[in-house]
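Entry 14. Two folds queued back to back today. First construct below, sequence then structure tokens.
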Amino acid sequence: MAINTLTNSYLTRLSNANHDGVTQQICDRLTGFQTTNQMLVDARQEVVVRRQAEDAAFKRFSGKDFASDDLKREDALEDKYMSAARGVLNGLLYLPETEPLRRKAEVAVQVFKDFQFSTSDGMEAEARKTVNMYQEWTKPEKYDLDGLGIREWVEKAKTQAEKVLTLVTIRVDNESAKVKGELAAARKQTDEAIRKAYDILNALAVLQPSAELNTLITVLFGIEDRAKLYYISGGKSGGDKPAPTPSPDGGSDDGGSDVTPVTPEPTPTPTPTPSDEGGDE
């Protein structure tokens, strides 16, 4: 009678979030198994260590908060210059309607509304708006920055915005790639640790079979089956539809959740429709 052997190749097809969750389930089952076999004890301890490293990397990757002190400082200066320009223009709106400068201020301040500018926008979004607004304001046939007294402030705001965009492009993206690479490496190390533990379990199943060991292996197969059904084939049984090829970093970008995914509950049996029960529509 052929014996099914545990494999972990399916783990490479999981997204980062699901890989984090499924491998934690495997780790929990291994650590809960009572054994005196030193090879298995050592192997599962390695799984524990690698799982902790992957979980930490996943949380750093999911947070994606790589803004440096320099980036925050440049953004704060941009905020001040843009706020100063807006303050000057808003002050000029108190002039009598007969004053030509008031009309010029109305035209210039409208740009803030047109671009929906707010200093509470994200750093990159705000910086791009500032650059585009400066390009609009420097159309001499429409705006009189010198007469309004805001040229110096909008020019300095534009300079700060360019600094923000440079930092976003160079510093933030590089840091993101670094963290992404860290997660990819951590995933591979977790997979390798699980593979070694599985090799030992497969050998013990042949050389030292027991009811407890058989139960553990059955549970591990169940984790694999559920992962393939819910996370790889999208909950569709009866077919082995291939999942999208993972990106080179070892998984997809799953966003900001740092909660370990759980195995979905089985789909409940549909209840009769209201018409079947004689209820109201």
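Second construct, same run, same settings:
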Amino acid sequence: MNIKKVITSALCAAMLALSVTACNNSETSGSSSSSSSSTTSQSSESSSESTPESSSESTPESTPAPDVVKIAAMSGPTGMGMAKLMEDNEENDYGYEFSVYGSPNDVTPLVANGDLDIACLPANLGSVLYNQTDGGVQVLAVNTLGVLYILENGDTVNSIDDLKGKTIFASGQGGTPEYSLRFILKESGIDPDNDVTIEWKTEHAECLQFLLQTENSVALLPQPFVTTALKQNEGIRVALDLNDEWDNTGAESSLLTGIVLVRKAFAEQYPDAVNQFLDRYAQSVGYVNNNIEEAAQLIEKFDIFKAAVAKDAIPACHIVCVRGDDMKDALSGYLQVLFDAEPKSVGGKLPADDFYYGA
């Protein structure tokens, strides 16, 4: 399967669907539905007429339901895609307990220790956790495509070669931002350890502040921080789109940013709950992409991002819910590229097939 076509079709579906039915119109209690293909936003007709096929074997008896499901999102596109589900959880008491974090470094140990059941993380960290926990996690979905950009408070960077000799403020060391940037630099003939200086910060917000305050500074930022920077300082510009730079390397896979993980033990104990979460999350993603004004208000309500920024950023955030075989094709291709460039970026080895839930 052509991975780039999978990703492109998933994004187009998310952006072109006209509407999404409310979650309570399309869910069945004890549902064990998931999908073996890409699931992004759904139209009101298709959402009510069809439910994705089960991604795990159905059981003749209903499985137990957890008292609470602990879910972590990030203060960015992954959290933005969760906003409608957070609202529905408040109204319908699904038993979800949401937490929003600014750094994946705060999330990964909680998943490894079993303190979180489901978490949104940078795409490569799922593989890292899989190896660290001896296969103790599975990926449920790709939830964000490429959202990384090089921004400059000035006008000296107009090509990838112009980064030579520059200091790049960045966050996400050990995650997708670091290894995607390093791969692009290496493939473009730039030594990331000697030709540039990458100054790592704890959170994207720190990089944003350096960029806003320092003339001729350069930063690696994802959406919606890109939109924030452009709004706050007229001198800041998008110098490079890393989606384009990634494609220019000739890599077979497209650039990915985020995934949704589940603890394998939790998925095995509560398969119905996991599949039901996936259906609800897919509908939340569709709602956010197709109801931007309303979604922006929810995004601010749950302290994910300011509504004014979210409203402008959502179309550029590439928020999706790619599941099943399409998820496996896209993510495995991306991880293969990272592994070939730097094995430690995926935890030393590629995950086995059981990493891909429902594929």
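Quick look at the second one. Residues 129 and 137 are 7 Å apart (CA to CA). Residues 271-290 form the longest helix (20 residues).
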